């Protein structure tokens, strides 16, 4: 076992390093150090191997082996709150902290992100909408870790901009998480006390790279790109989903959809069959349409279409995939003709591009 730097506790105390043994994933990626029989026996004891399966015990693991695909949208949503993070960084960080096990085995820390009570009080929310805020709820823990990391990323970005520290922003963020912002400032870079933690997280990134490029879709194993049709004829992205500075307000915030450049008056179509629940003029979005597509794996899916020059449907109307619903325009807070297209799944904005059949 290795002594690992313990994440800095924002409550002010600095707990001693904890010791965590290798989980199934660590064992699997050490070929040559264990025999296939030992691997199979270990996985059988931990419930990760079906004795009746004909699949080879030495098959290489991937992110899907470690993390249920349904957590992909949560990782993507949490990382989308700031430009520095990526879903793979969050997933690798959780792997290092707990091996994706809800019980990290350390007193005073709970859930897959190993939150203390003090840290949870600061960062935790009821993100999955189940009526409770708990570090044991994996979506809540993923989102809380994203908020904590993004706050640290903002700080180290400022420090690097003014020349106080130097180095890679992801590494600096992870270092600040591990040992505290003050230690990073004192060292002017990633301090030696955080190098082991940073290295261990980075060594896991490749295993979770799929979450940076693929959406979990409907949770059935079907990829998201089979779910929605293109809302405009040509998907020319002029502003992607994610953190950005608004071109008119100058405020940096999450851009909740994708802007597709298109000529004034170009046709806008429903991306999926559903019911129009909103179609009216708004101050910020201009002419805006919201379509409810019902539930997929128990979560509601909605799409929105904004800045339209004309509305061709009304609230309460049922539409089919490809039904013309409006025309591209530049109404509301807009700098030119385009379609601002959003996907809302389970009440949360998610990157629309992986959901679109020709959006890659």
* Rg on CA atoms, Å: 23 Å
Query: What's the structural domain tally?
Result: 2
The largest β sheet comes out as: 8 strands, antiparallel
Shape: globular
Report how far apart the termini are: 43 Å
Taking all residues together, what is the mean pLDDT? 78
What's the β-strand tally? Answer: 15
Q: Per DSSP, what share of the residues sits in E-state strands of 2 or more residues?
A: 15-25%
- Named at the architecture level, the CATH assignment of the largest domain is Orthogonal Bundle
CATH topology of the largest domain: Lysozyme
Indicate the structural class.
alpha+beta
CATH class of the largest domain: Mainly Alpha
> How helical, in percent, are the residues?
25-40%
- Elements, N to C (H/E): EEHHHHHHHHHHEEEEEEEEEEEEE
Write a structural description.
There is one protein chain. The protein is an alpha+beta fold and 360 residues long. It folds into two domains: 211 residues, Lysozyme, CATH 1.10.530; 132 residues, Glucose Permease (Domain IIA) (Distorted Sandwich), CATH 2.70.70.10. Helix content is 28%, strand content 21%. It is built from ten helices and 15 strands. Strands 3, 6, 8, 9, 10, 12, 14 and 15 form an eight-stranded antiparallel β-sheet that branches. Strands 7-13-11 form a three-stranded antiparallel β-sheet, with no helix packed on it. Strand 14 and strand 15 form a beta hairpin. The longest helix is centred in the middle third of the chain and has 24 residues. The two termini are 43 Å apart.
């Amino acid at each position: 076992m290795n002594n690992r730097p313990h994440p800095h506790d924002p409550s002010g105390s600095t707990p001693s390093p904890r010791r965590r043994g290798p989980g199934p994933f660590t064992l699997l990626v050490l070929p040559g150090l264990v025999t296939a029989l030992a691997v199979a026996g270990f996985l059988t004891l931990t419930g990760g191997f079906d004795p009746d399966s004909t699949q080879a015990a030495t098959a290489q693991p991937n992110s899907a082996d470690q993390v249920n695909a349904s957590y992909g949208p949560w990782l993507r949503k949490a990382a989308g709150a700031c430009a520095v993070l990526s879903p793979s960084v969050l997933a690798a960080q959780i792997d290092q902290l707990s091996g994706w096990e809800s019980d990290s085995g350390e007193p005073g820390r709970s859930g897959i992100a190993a939150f203390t009570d003090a840290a949870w009080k600061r960062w935790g929310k009821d993100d999955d909408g189940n009526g409770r805020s708990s570090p044991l709820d994996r979506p809540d823990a993923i989102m809380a870790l994203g908020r904590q990391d993004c706050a640290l990323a903002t700080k180290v970005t400022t420090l690097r901009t003014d020349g106080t520290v130097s180095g890679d922003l992801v590494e600096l963020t992870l270092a600040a998480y591990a040992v505290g912002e003050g230690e990073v400032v004192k060292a002017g870079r990633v301090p030696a006390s955080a190098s082991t933690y940073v290295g261990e997280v980075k060594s896991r990134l490749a295993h979770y790279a799929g979450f940076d490029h693929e959406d979990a879709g409907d949770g059935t194993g079907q990829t998201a790109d089979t779910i929605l049709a293109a809302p405009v004829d040509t998907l020319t992205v002029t502003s992607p989903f994610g953190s950005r500075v608004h071109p008119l307000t100058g405020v940096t915030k999450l851009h909740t959809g994708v802007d597709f450049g298109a000529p004034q008056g170009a046709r806008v179509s429903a991306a999926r069959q559903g019911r129009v629940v909103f179609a009216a003029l708004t101050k910020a979005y201009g002419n805006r349409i919201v379509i409810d597509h019902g539930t997929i794996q128990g979560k509601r899916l909605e799409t929105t279409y904004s800045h339209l020059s004309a509305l061709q449907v009304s609230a309460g109307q049922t539409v089919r995939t490809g039904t013309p619903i409006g025309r591209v325009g530049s109404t509301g807070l807009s700098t030119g003709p385009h379609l601002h297209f959003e996907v809302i799944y389970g009440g949360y904005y998610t990157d629309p591009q992986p959901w679109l059949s020709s959006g890659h």
